[in-house]
Structure formats: structure tokens, C-alpha cells
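Supplementary Methods, section 5.1.

A reviewer requested that the exact input to the structure prediction be made available. We therefore reproduce it here, unchanged from the version used in the analyses.
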Amino acid sequence: MDTSSLLAKTHIAQSLAQQMKVGDGATVGIPGVTEPVSAKVSLISPALDPGSTTVEVWLKIGNKSGAFKVGTPVKVTITGRTVEKALKVPAAAVVAAEDGTKAVMVVGDDGAAHRKPVTLGITDADDVQITSGLAPGDMVITGGAYGLDEGTKVKVGPAADDSKAGGTD
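The structure derived from this sequence is encoded cell-by-cell as follows.
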């Protein structure tokens, strides 16, 4: 058996697989190996797995020394698209209109909430990249924006302290 290169196979959500391409970088955590091992995406299945509705992805790992063993369970991290100096907001700040367009609510110079249509880029579990429609200096309303009407007066308070969330003083 030629084990000079190995495949790590994983299943990921379709929405993530659509953002990937063959050749994307990845790392593989192998039990007993201190540092993650570099890998490359070598195959993205063109079909969904019917049982899980996920997409199978293969990662190619170099193994010329023969240090890694066939059949070892591993933990993979795939590097998707990255954008340097991306403008991003919390995903909860994005509001959708009935026609499917996306927007954020910002605090205007008049102290009122205003809807700003935006174009979205890369999305992860917590944040969304804004590719157009928002400037770096805009003050985005990050919570409860879906319930605000255009022109509603807002008061800017101190940022929430996540370490005290749910606690008492």
C-alpha cells in the first residue's frame, strides 16, 4: 500500500462547501502529533450525501515519512475564503426585507435609526462581511434592529459587557 500521501475525508454543510474550491488550504490535527499538519482540498463532491445533506470533502496530506497511519480519526480545519481588512458586522445586525434584500440599521447624525441597504460577502457563525453600502465610520445598530422603523430616535449607550451577561451586580 502506498501511503506517501493520505486522504482525510470529512462532511460539511452545503452552504460552506459552495464557498470552497479544490486547492484551498487546510490543517489536520492527528492524535499524537503536536502540530497540525498542512493539507489541501483535493475533492469536493458534486452531490449531497442523501442521509445527511452534507457534502463530502477530501483533504490530501503528504506522508512521505510514513509517520501517519491509515484509518486514524483526525480533526480538520479548512481555510475558506479570507479577506484582509474586511468590514464586518454581527449577523444579528442584518435585517432582510420582504423582497429578499439585506440592510442594516445605522444611527444617523440626527440621532435616529436609518435603513442602509448592504451587499453581503463572507458569512460565518457570528459575523457577516459587508462588501458595499456601509462605511467604516457608520454606527450600526447590532441588536434589535429588526424592530426599528425608519427615523426612530435612538440613544447610544455603553457597549454591552459580555462577561456580565446574565449576572447580577
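Confidence is low (pLDDT under 50) at residues 165-169. These observations are discussed further in the main text.
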